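Researcher: I need the complex structure. Ligand is 2-acetamido-2-deoxy-beta-D-glucopyranose. Inputs:
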Amino acid sequence: MLRQTKSWVALVLILQVLGAIFNAVDAKPFRILLDTDVATDDFFAFFYLLKLNRSEFELETITINTNIWSDAGHAVNHIYDMLYMMNRDDIAVGVGREGGILEDGTILPNVGGYLPIIEQGMTSAGYCRYRQVIPVGHGGRLCTDTNFGIRKAFLPHGSRKYSPLQQPTAQQVMIETISAGPIIVFLIGAHTNLAIFLMNNPHLKKNIEHIYVIGGGIRSENPSGCCFGNASLSCQPDMCGYPGNLFTDYNSNPYAEFNIFGDPFAAYQVYHSGIPITIVPLDATDTIPITEHFFKAFEESQRTYEAKYCFQSLKTKLAPLSADKSDTMGLQDPSCFVENGKGKCKDGYTMEVTGPGAVHVLVATKAKPNPDVHSKLDQQFFISFLDVSSYYLNFNLSDISNSTHIDQM
Ligand SMILES: *[C@@H]1O[C@H](CO)[C@@H](O)[C@H](O)[C@H]1NC(C)=O
Ligand SMILES: *[C@@H]1O[C@H](CO)[C@@H](O)[C@H](O)[C@H]1NC(C)=O
Ligand SMILES: *[C@@H]1O[C@H](CO)[C@@H](O)[C@H](O)[C@H]1NC(C)=O
Ligand SMILES: *[C@@H]1O[C@H](CO)[C@@H](O)[C@H](O)[C@H]1NC(C)=O
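Model: Output:
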């Protein structure tokens, strides 16, 4: 059930920690750049971020990763419409454009970022060594691009929309935002955009104070949250005992997690950049499965439009899982199988190592329990998320829009 809830859960955890730091230091907000593939869990995190106190957390820029779960035009329009709903048309949004990497290694300014770095040539179309693990239709990109069909029906539309040749590029907005001063970067999709940025602008590295990565599986052995005697209909017990979550390719590569697998070389660049990094891997997010109690509490507390949108998305997303999990075939690389039918490929595995090739990163391991032991919501995260999602910002949609779309849900 929790297969893709991780970005959202993890971002809330990080922000709680940063909130504590904030009170201790000076009074400037943390400037934030969010790089996302706009999957369901990602936009939950994005709404949460937008609703925090802007004197403490200022989300300035969003860059979109289009290597894995989503396609550029849909992802940009989705973000624009959500920003419009939140009265935040001021936030810059960047995505790749034509550009590329020349044979001699020269990286052109508007490099697309539609492909993993090692496959990026002078075109935005290419082989899909990693992306083929993502189903194109049901359960995959179609669902992310349309948010299960509810995106256009629910969200109001402002004046910003995707415009192929005029859309600001990810690299442009990254350069503008990061050169403006110290910043924190959240990577909640594959790492292509930031890796290209770092390779091209090493002099701006010093402005990135910290990178928070939602991705990887390190010591997790229960990535589907339902192993070892607790199997139910929605479980995939074959995923037990290994750290990864490539549910479409699990038999050939049980080690990788999607966000890293989407562009392993980009992840390598980011981790070896020398910038302080915290990884929130499946190990940590596995400790917060979505419980029935949470689902119910969320259903009952949908006061704001953003809470309604998130709840409807979650409900739609979870619905087909128990009934139909068959339509998710991706890559099944026969050269990766060993005798017992389990894979040996480890592309994209965030493995613990020591020695000269190793880098130091902080790794989150476990969510905080709810201090109220009598509450049915056992994790502090649930309380925080519901609180934040249900309060009103100091405007209402009717103030900014005459949209009729908004009342349909
Ligand atoms: C937002 O944060 C600032 C700085 O910590 C604080 O002074 C202010 O009271 C906060 N506003 C709200 C509405 O909590
Ligand atoms: C199954 O889940 C229940 C409730 O979450 C838990 O108390 C129990 O320890 C789990 N059993 C196993 C074998 O993991
Ligand atoms: C927005 O609407 C809600 C529900 O009708 C109301 O409680 C809240 O006060 C409104 N906020 C503003 C700023 O008008
Ligand atoms: C909303 O409707 C009013 C009255 O019909 C109109 O004057 C105004 O321009 C509209 N605003 C937008 C943003 O469409």
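Model: Summary of the prediction. Residues 228-230 surround 2-acetamido-2-deoxy-beta-D-glucopyranose (ligand 2) (CB under 6 Å).
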